[in-house]
Design brief:
alpha+beta; disordered C terminus
Length: 284
Amino acid sequence: MNHDQTSEHERENERLLELARFDILDTLPEAAYDNIVWLAAHTLNVPIAAINFVDDQRQWSKACIGTLTLAGDRRHSFCAHVVHTRETMVVPNTRQDPRFQHNPFVTGEPTIQFYAGAPIITGAGHVIGSLCAIDRKPRLPFSQQEREVLERFAALVASELELRVSQRAVEQTLAYAQATNARLQASEAQNTALLSAIPDTLIHLNNQGRVLSLQAGALSPLCFAARSTFKTSCRPRRRKRYNVPSIHLCTKMMSSAWKCSFRETVWLPSARCDVCAYRMTRFW
């Protein structure tokens, strides 16, 4: 195998990988592609139009109008010639073209006698198929303007393919985010249940000594000795002045059943609470 053959083989492998990236083969019909072939057929005044993709062994039709399908062996594919040459191909009379005189698509259904196909070129520059306009009778001529119309429709197919990939990526990202959120909620619910079973009261403070969260326990009245996170509570034997850190128990973070449980708790002056904006004063 010479260098040119090796390069051609590598290009074909890259083209097949690009085709696989779109995951378009053997998918259900989609309105976007059906609309394109309908517009192409009516704009170019032909009875048959199709969007065909070519893999290593076959031609497969994503959308087709005027015939059931143009799927078949790659050896008989008109579109395979477009993929190979990477250019728009026009065959005015297939019965007079030696390449297609004995083609089963010519001698049998859909009895192709006129063919025009424009390459579907991806953003990476690979030709993965073609948009074709077909007639059951020879057609002369096929103007330059009609050729440009066909090529623009083919470019529209390529844009739809890229959009399809982007939408799929967004859907996968959204599904991952939803799954992650569900796991976080389940973890939070589990942590809350575990903390609720602890008889002590837990207070979470930031580095400035402000209350970030509170988990009320089952013991009261309480004396809190808080550090950077929390400490367990202890029950005072009698009412007196306690030298405890400057923290504030935010009543907005407590249920009404717990508000009275802290009436004997001792607080020293500190900053404003981040939750209720309460400025603490001295109590004992």
